[in-house]
Design goal:
Helix content: 40-55%
Shape: flat
Structural class: mainly alpha
Number of domains: 1
Order of helices and strands: HEHHEH
Distance between the termini: 48 Å
Protein name: Similar to histocompatibility 28
Radius of gyration: 18 Å
Number of strands: 2
């Protein structure tokens, strides 16, 4: 599985697209949210999980995001929502950066404003 992910990452990077990894199975997620949302990446278990992903896939730590999986929950939780929206924002920024780096196509026509 790791080999497949590394291959996908290499192909994506070769196309000029940044990689973002979402960790949805953080073992001490609830402890981190209860303790201090802002410092969740400093929690030892979480930090170890992030470092493992970084080492396996060679993705920058800033692009490894921890989110909770809502698959089995019926009620939304604001603290988890903040993390999910922050992860979405990071993914959109990575996509936007990749799109900005694409060369413009010359179609020979101008588009009026």
């Amino acid at each position: 599985m790791v080999a497949k992910l590394k291959k996908i990452r290499k192909d994506v990077v070769d196309c000029g697209v940044g990689c973002v990894a979402l960790l949805t199975n953080v073992s001490d997620y609830d402890e981190v949210l209860d303790d201090n949302l802002v410092n969740m990446t400093e929690n030892m278990t979480s930090l170890n999980q992030v470092q493992n992903v970084r080492n396996m896939l060679n993705i920058p730590v800033a692009n490894i995001l921890m989110v909770s999986n809502y698959a089995s929950e019926r009620m939304l939780e604001p603290l988890k929502d903040v993390l999910i929206f922050a992860a979405l924002q990071q993914m959109l920024r990575a996509a936007d950066d990749a799109l900005e780096d694409l060369p413009l196509e010359d179609t020979g026509t101008t588009v009026p404003f």
